[in-house]
Amino acid sequence: xVDRVSSYQDGAPERTVEKELRAGFAESGVEVSDGEVKQxxxxxxxxxxxxSASDVLSA
Length: 59
What we know:
By secondary structure, the chain is an all-alpha fold. 68% of the residues lie in helices and 0% in strands.
């Protein structure tokens, strides 16, 4: 799911990545804290693309 959002969010308006992550997690039934969603969104936006969720969340 993180890869899917990462792949098409390059250049997306601010907050789109976070919104899409939340929607994807909800759709898949995966529970992720607000802080984790924000961490992932920030990493995707900073890297302008693909990130490893496990690397981001374990840092």
